[in-house]
Structure to design on (619 residues):
């Protein structure tokens, strides 16, 4: 998003002030930061066990002092897997969302703003992409870039002396990111286009045009602030969607691979033992839900804060 | 209006053609072919089959031959399932369509009213309650909801079954599983759209004139407020129909979602192409319907192009 601030009070600095007054939203922001920090920092401490050590004599433990959240079907520590899975799910959520918002909003708003033939052609391209079998795309993507990824991973491991498992964990995710966002921006583009088409017929846009403002200025300064609200609400909705897409892909064996985990995979594994060992489903669900609720309230807060019609206070 | 619809339908054919051409090329770029699966075939059988399906020719020639067969109404032969593609699709399409339509109906009938009521009672207990339920609906994946519904409802309600696709009662659980997440999305989107509209001047004018709250909502607010929701319904319907693989697997519904996934994994070229043509047509129609509804709801769009 643009962070160009203008003289006086900009949309963004006003929004920040208003957001800070919204207790629900700031608390949510705080929770999200804490969860992210826990997932990425806590595994470096030795109190967290290795998430991949299996112990078949120690399966399905209830939460206890030794395993704070218990163990799963092959005796792995649930807390450690939850943190590791969080790293991947949070990354998938952030990267796929950022890519799809950037691509989708610019594509959709340009199509909606220009209108006419250009709009028709641009939106028909979106229709084509909707229909493409996404599995084909994902498999091809992974084949296509896996060679290059191997080279990148090799350099990172050898020249930068980074931890091998760490590097491989994240480079393996790149085809997944690309594939999820390659599909994710389509609906975003349609939403943005519909909003722009509504807004551009309003009087203040006509006024801006008759003042002779450039199209770029009209789009970024007059249209964008007015469609941001709906876009942000839709964005907070897409994050769980992306995290779950990753889980569905793993369901087909195309997402995150087995020693690794993600929240989606933990939910899926938990669902298998729903009747006998409900804690395996309930614990990941709680963390996942807290994250999504926080995201949701933050989105609502941002929507209210960014509303250009709200009184300046 | 009519000319717009006709031109959109013409564009639809171009869309399906491009879609087919791209899929045709991409699936052949993938390593493996229909005969490289688990079943091992004798060398000469594979060779004969490849000749039969013209897989030994360059891709453009294969495509031309396929298009020529299409004009005669032939969809080709599934090399993996050893059945005509038309027959496989004919058997699975009704289930997919029913599942998609029921799922979408549940989503619309639950999601849009919930969103409208939440927006009208903003920041009340009803609003928070509805939105928390919506958020839960969005965050529970279908592979959790499905078994949960099957385990809890199917064992208690006499006419519901854990899996299967016979009488209309069997439509209930899969459609619920498929539609609930979309209902939740729709509720959130409708609420956002309604809040936007309720702040507009014309609503305030109507209030000042003393128009009753009910008629403000019904006559003025809903029209504008559900625009984002309608924009979402088109692609969502397409997503429900193409993405029903997991629900189909859980409830053993004989739909097309499984063919969409399995034909890719087994490189069943002709089946995938047939499925893509049909899905393409559905996506074109769903998006066209959504766009027509948008023009209908927002008269200002009528003045120039739609």
């Amino acid at each position: 998003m643009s962070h160009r601030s203008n003289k006086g009070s900009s949309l963004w600095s006003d929004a920040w002030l208003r957001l800070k007054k919204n207790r629900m939203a700031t608390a949510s922001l705080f929770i999200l930061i804490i969860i992210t920090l826990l997932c990425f920092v806590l595994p470096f401490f030795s109190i967290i066990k290795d998430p991949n050590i299996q112990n078949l004599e120690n399966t399905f433990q209830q939460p206890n002092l030794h395993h704070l959240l218990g163990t799963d079907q092959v005796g792995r520590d649930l807390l450690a897997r939850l943190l590791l899975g969080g790293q991947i799910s949070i990354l998938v959520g952030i990267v796929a969302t950022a890519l799809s918002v950037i691509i989708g909003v610019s594509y959709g708003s340009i199509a909606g703003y220009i209108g006419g033939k250009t709009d028709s052609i641009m939106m028909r391209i979106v229709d084509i992409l909707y229909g493409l079998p996404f599995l084909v795309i994902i498999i091809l993507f992974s084949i296509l870039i896996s060679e290059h990824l191997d080279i990148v991973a090799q350099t990172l491991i050898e020249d930068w002396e980074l931890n091998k498992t760490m590097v491989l964990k994240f480079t393996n995710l790149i085809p997944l990111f690309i594939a999820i966002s390659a599909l994710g921006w389509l609906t975003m583009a349609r939403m943005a286009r519909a909003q722009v088409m509504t807004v551009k017929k309003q009087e203040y846009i006509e006024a801006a045009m008759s003042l002779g403002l450039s199209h770029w200025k009209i789009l970024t300064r007059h249209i964008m602030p007015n469609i941001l609200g709906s876009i942000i609400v839709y964005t907070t909705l897409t994050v769980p969607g992306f995290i779950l897409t990753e889980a569905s892909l793993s369901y087909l064996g195309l997402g995150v691979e087995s020693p690794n985990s993600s929240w989606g995979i933990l939910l899926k594994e938990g669902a298998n033992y729903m009747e006998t060992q409900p804690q395996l489903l309930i614990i990941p669900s709680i963390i996942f839900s807290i994250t999504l609720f926080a995201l949701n309230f933050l989105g609502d807060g941002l929507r209210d804060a960014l509303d250009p019609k709200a009184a300046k206070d | 209006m009519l000319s717009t619809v006709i031109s959109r339908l013409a564009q639809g054919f171009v869309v399906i053609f491009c879609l087919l051409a791209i899929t045709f090329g991409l699936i052949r770029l993938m390593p493996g072919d229909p005969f490289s699966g688990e079943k091992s075939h004798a060398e000469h059988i594979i060779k004969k089959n490849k000749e039969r399906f013209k897989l030994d020719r360059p891709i453009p020639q294969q495509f031309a031959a396929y298009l020529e067969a299409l004009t005669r109404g032939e969809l080709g032969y599934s090399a993996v399932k050893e059945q005509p593609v038309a027959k496989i699709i004919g058997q699975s399409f009704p289930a997919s369509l029913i599942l998609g339509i029921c799922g979408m109906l549940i989503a619309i009938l639950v999601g849009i009213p919930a969103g409208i009521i939440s927006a009208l009672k903003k920041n009340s207990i009803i609003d928070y309650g509805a939105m928390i339920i919506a958020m839960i609906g969005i965050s529970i994946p279908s592979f959790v909801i499905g078994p949960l519904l099957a385990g809890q409802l199917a064992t208690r309600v006499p006419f519901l079954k854990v899996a299967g696709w016979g009488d209309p009662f069997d439509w209930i659980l899969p459609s619920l599983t498929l539609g609930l997440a979309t209902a939740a999305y729709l509720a959130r989107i409708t609420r956002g759209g309604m809040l936007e509209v309720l702040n507009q001047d014309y609503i305030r004018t109507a209030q000042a004139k003393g128009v009753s709250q009910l008629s403000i909502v019904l006559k003025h607010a809903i029209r504008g407020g559900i625009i984002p929701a309608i924009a979402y319904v088109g692609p969502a319907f397409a997503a429900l129909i193409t993405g029903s693989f997991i629900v189909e697997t859980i409830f053993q519904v004989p739909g097309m979602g499984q063919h969409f996934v399995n034909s890719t994994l087994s490189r069943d070229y002709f089946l995938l192409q047939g499925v893509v043509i049909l899905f393409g047509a559905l996506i074109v129609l769903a998006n066209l319907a959504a766009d027509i509804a948008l023009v209908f709801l927002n008269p200002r769009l009528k003045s120039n192009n739609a």
Remarks:
- The radius of gyration of chain B is 24 Å.
- DSSP finds 13 helices and two strands in chain B.
